[in-house]
Amino acid sequence: MTVDVSSPPRTGPWTPRVALALAVLAAAAFVYVTAEIMPVGALPAIAADLDVSEAMVGTLLASYALVAAVATVPLVRWTAGWPRRRTLMFTLVCLTVSQLISALAPTFEVLALGRVLCALTHGLMWSVIAPIGTRLVPPSHAGRATMAVYVGTGLALVIGSPLTAALSELWGWRLAVVAITVAAAAVLVAARVTLPLMAISSGPGARPGPIWHHRNRRLVIMSLLTLVGVTGHFISYTFIVIIIRDIVGVSGTNLAWLLAAYGIAGLTAMGLLARPGDRNPRAAIAGCMAGLAVVFAVLAGLGFGGRNTLATLLVGIVAVVLWGATATAVPPMLQSAAMRHCPEDPDGASGLYVAAFQVGIMAGSLIGGLLFEHAGEPAMLTASALLVAAALACVLAARDLFASAGVTSGK
Q: What domains are defined for the chain?
């Protein structure tokens, strides 16, 4: 399979046209991630408005991830012959409609159903958005292009999540969802106007038939490692607002500011690790995972201590900021590594990675909800620390799993 990018010759990888295309892709990531994690910042408001428990609202992430995990690979194969821009626009149409349904939902059940439509195409969006970005630049810049797309994720944490949390606190969660709806429609128009068609064409470079990614040992190991790490992260991240409120001791509008600091730290880390992520991805990923495991261990210790002092407040704030830096920087590096293991079908490799990521979100949200109900926040954080440490051990043990930019493997 080959892709016609339909772009003129360029003297360097970062032309204005490429930069604009990457910005639109980042905007698509921003609005999708903001929609996905909206219940995290609006969790108390949704629970109060729809008369359900906070743990029940937490299941919105788990159900979303379940649908995304199941639908990703079939949808990637179904749309394999579509131009890449059409595929992305299809996901943005589904996102816009789903957010409109959610904003008008009279019950929790309707809200959950509205999110299903968005979840159906969530994995498909992530399966094509990073490969689109990497096809706009030379292979040596693939990791940096993926990081540029993932800037949208960081902005969702800096702006999207705090803004939806603040809107939910001040004027209700429905207004927050309406804002997401408008943003999704705007990005849909921008994608149509600015992105190249990227039509799929047959030719000498086209792959002859379907590729069975489950036979790609390194890609499968990468996906399993992702599943374990994401599960560990989302056990606690699903309830980050509760953790910040109860363990760190920050609430109200200050909580939104701390969530913004979480996202700013993530954006900063992505910028700092863009080049190292291309040149030495194993070291960059291992460093982030080690930091994340330490963060969860520190917050668990604060939770078990049960004291709210100035010292615990400061330590907690630093831990949350480091949480944002380490957790946000890892996914683009992992996805770039996954695509390098199958250069002849990066969309399919990305789809398998995304499916594993979504299963991790689902498992983490469910396990986190159970621990939150029956054992409390410190137990959640301890479980997160242990699972992230296990993923770190896999990264350190698998020396042949991470290739630098320009080096690929299909084994």
A: 15-197+214-397 (1.20.1250.20)
